[in-house]
Amino acid sequence: MAIGSYDREELDELLESRQFRKLREMMSEMNEVDIAEFIEEQEPEKKVLVYRMLPKELAADVFSFLEVEDQEHIINSITDYELGKIIEDLYVDDAVDMLEELPAIVVKRVLQNATPQTRNLINQFLQYPENSAGSIMTAEYIGLKRNMTVEQAFAYIRENGVDKETIYTCFVTDSKRCLQGVVTVKDLLMNPYDTVIKDIMDENIIYAVTTEDREDVVETFNKYDLLCLPVVDHEDRLVGIVTVDDAVEVMEQEATEDFEKMAAMFPSEKPYLKTGVLELTKNRLPWLLILMFTSILSGTVLMDYEHAIQVLPLLLSFVPMLMDTSGNCGNQSSTMVIRGMAVGEIELKDVLRVIWKEFRVGLLCGLVLAAANFVRLMLQYPGRPMLSMAVVLSLVAAIVLAKIIGCVLPMLAEKMKLDPAIMAAPLITTIVDVGSLLIYFRVACALLNLA
Questions:
Q1: pLDDT tens string 77-98
Q2: Which residues does UniProt assign to the signal peptide (predicted)?
Q3: Model pTM?
């Protein structure tokens, strides 16, 4: 197995043979993500040993990519001086993410070894609402003044840009730190040294507010293809930026959360292999109980039509096909609508357009599937055209109903300020199953005179 352009076995061999100098040289040329993976795969006592070998310019970057458990282990194993170096070298957003996950006693030690300036900045970030723009932003950005010249801007960037998350996009503020414009390094390079920043900056600024939901921030990144987004407080003062790597991380977290909700589970903040059995059970059991008891409605419908089933037991053989097909159709619609709402393609005002479109899609799908089923039924049960007709008519109606339910429920959840993902496969399937059974037995009773 290779890590980047390096052989994992060779790294392990160097570690086992205690050739630490050569191991340090190899790691100094590796990507920090690969080094973090290498450390995570070591035994606990070797994790700290390998981490301490890292060149100081790499140590903080590698630390930010480690799992929280490994970060805690290293923090508990190093000196206060080493811990102070780590916390000072970390970007503020990475430090905040780490502290939000660590136990309180570890957080206390970390903050005790930070400088007063860093500690105040971290505490400020920790006060922002969870899942807000303020909670994912960083304070490491380049801020310029409108009266600077291009030459002065370049000098400022060279002097202060080393520890910044990005230097390509620079933000122009006034004396009160109010955001006034944006200028890129490309703009600076394409203009003479004596050009004043205010003459070339873009005053049409796209920004977020500290309390804005992080999902809205991600939508802004997607809509405008941004590399970073300035974040201002309620007085329009620039307090930080969200970079594209943070936006991608939020996308991954939100997608994972939606997948779990769509599978009828409460979201888990830990990776699957690091989540305990009891926690996994706790996340899944409530929805399973809810869905189990709601599925009793299907049994109630069957009991209501017990007489029809006794007269023609063959009716039961078509129930699984009807329920599965309608359930699949409802899931298709809900998936498309949830995805459309997530990326901003569908809004609540589009509800009638969505219903009309899904009605037509359901009708076409239903007619094609019904035609195929009618041929099969006539071949399998010759001489029973009314039975075949009852099945295919029920199939068309059930599919149309499923498509409408599948598109309406996520939008209804959004209207009720709930996550549309909860109105996904399991819940929609349960509702559609009951509707399909009611349609099927009513149509069958009417056409076959079973009432």
A1: 888 888 888 888 888 888 888 8
A2: none
A3: 0.63
